[in-house]
Amino acid sequence: MTSYHNHYLHVDLSSGTWSTFALPEDVLERYVGGKGVGAYLLALHQDPRAEPFDPANPLIFVTGPLTGTQAPSMRSAAIFQSPLTCLFTDSYFGGFFGQELKYAGYDGLLITGQAARPCYLEINDGRVAIQDAAHLWGLDTYQTYERLRADYPEREWRLVCIGPAGERQVKFAVIDCDPHRQAGRGGGGAVMGAKNLKAIVVRGTGKLSLADPQGFKERVRAALHEMKDNSYIKGFHSGGTPASIPWADAEGLLPTRNFQRGSFPQAEQLGDAAQRERYWYRDIACAACPIACSKLGRLQEGRFAGLEGDTLEYESAAMLGSNLEVGQTDGAIYLGLLCDKLGLDTISAGAVLSFACEAVEKGLLKADVRFGDVESLAALLQDIAARRGVGDLLAEGVRATAAEIGGGADYFAMHVKGLELPAWGPRGVPAMGLAYMTADRGGCHQRAFPILYEAGGETWKGQSYERLSLEGKAQLLAEVQNRLAGLDTLITCDFGRYGLSDQTYLDLLAVATGRRLSLDELYRLGERIWNLTRLFNLQAGLTREEEDLPRRFKEEPLPDGPAAGHRFTEADIERLRADYYAVRGWDENGVPKPETLAALEIKYP
Ligand code: SF4
């Protein structure tokens, strides 16, 4: 008896057929769940050199072994080859969809093929149906949720869907969940749109088994107690992620005007206090999460009065606020809600808009858009989602747009490996720069966040790190990446991790599944997965030259904050990359050495 089903659903939209499968025991042994199993399935079913929207490409939804249990703050993931980066991508989301999939009897869902016309997938325990979605096509995510709710009124029905941006295969379209949660990064919504798949609804009436039900109850109680007095958890609950805005601003890390600067005079307007005053009215939580980091809001007055939806997370507040020089709380909230409704990743959308503003200023792009002008920014977002006019070009992301318009636009195209950078400027925190360079899915802060150790006053294994030094940073980063990739097999929420020790997660895993892992085994598991995704990316054509930072970070010193004056020299980049490859047991081109793969017992499917 265990919270694993080892039962996966495969739906082929081309033939309209479905079947189920189990993973070989040795695969579960080696990859556990979540990211590990998703990476394995992607390697098994995806040709890394296929065209981004080839119907044969799979879209995979995976859960973790604790998803659906009362273990606190567990989530789910969408795994696919990103049309934006052409790399392995894992995009995590909260809500209730993954939990319901487990109650329906599945640990994951593999979708291949392409429907002949718009459809949605209905999973009702063991019954699977592909339904016509003509009445949903063209609706935004909020409207789609409302229409489906009318047809599936019982609360147990959970859903994911795409907006107009996903339908038109905008390469940074999200998969919206429930709503209020998104698998945001890398363009999963575009993959779904290419399959003519507008939504998935799922309901399950099954119960999860547990290896040791009494032990599990006790472990959950202990975990909740552990979280209760944790200062990070309290902060996420009371202020949500935008509470980080003032700190990022003071540290010179808050992207401003397309990452030209690291602090913003109106930063206060984007933080939790301003949003609370003008907007918030209640907390929302994912399944079995005591943190409830997200807030719902309604604008009571001003030119956007009546707008209602999610408040701005830190990343959205920064990328649609300071990075666009939008210093009014209402204006940034309006842009965030527009992204949510159109089904756009707020991080990439903010980076694409700021790139467009700068390109227009430099005479490289013709578009009616300006920094700080909410109306023109909103109009361009609509054009991107509709692939209208210059929006069609920008819908390809900043890397492709810069290559198309030329004129040195790559200098201010703020991405790594095609993924637009999130809202933490890396100048002044070199390990964060290396984290962007080496993250398996491209410029991403969630595969490791070494800012904590470089500027946040935290220690790693009892050791402090000098902020600007490069010494030991590659080792630090690889260890943090391994840890997080290990935890991503359980799909623990990024924020829950701040309040629970890794040992607590392993204790929960043991009583839920009977599987006992040591801490060393967890980190080794993460290292194995990191090498598996590396092999996938190399087959997809990744080169060492792409593991670099945008030229702006190398040529313009950071103008703000305690690390003002810092920039990455070419020698810094070379040193960080070479150190990292050596720590990982990769050759000078970033290819895992045979002995590294053998030691990690990696068999590429
Ligand atoms: S901390 Fe926030 S994102 Fe994470 S599981 Fe809880 S409510 Fe969801």
Assign the CATH class of the largest domain: Alpha Beta
Distance between the termini: 28 Å
Q: What is the average per-residue confidence, as pLDDT, rounded to a whole number?
A: 97
Structural class computed from helices and strand pairing = alpha+beta
* Outline: globular
Query: Helix content range of the residues, please?
Result: 25-40%
Work out the number of β strands: 17
Continuous helix count: 24
Strand order of the largest sheet: 2-1-6-3-4-5
Which ions, cofactors or small ligands are bound in this entry?
Answer: iron/sulfur cluster
**Residues in β-strands, percent:** 5-15%
Structural description of this entry:
The chain is of the alpha+beta class and 605 residues long. The chain folds into three domains: 8-203, Aldehyde Ferredoxin Oxidoreductase,  A, domain 1, CATH 3.60.9.10; 242-413, Aldehyde Ferredoxin Oxidoreductase Protein, subunit A, domain 2 (Orthogonal Bundle), CATH 1.10.569; 430-498 and 517-599, Orthogonal Bundle (Aldehyde Ferredoxin Oxidoreductase Protein, subunit A, domain 3). Helix content is 39%, strand content 13%. Helix 7 runs antiparallel to helix 20, helix 12 packs parallel to helix 14 (374-386) and helix 19 (473-487) crosses helix 21 (519-539). The protein is globular. It starts with 7 loop residues before the first strand and ends in a 6-residue tail after the last helix. The protein binds iron/sulfur cluster. Iron/sulfur cluster binds at residues 73, 75, 94, 236, 285-286, 289, 291-294, 493, 495-496.
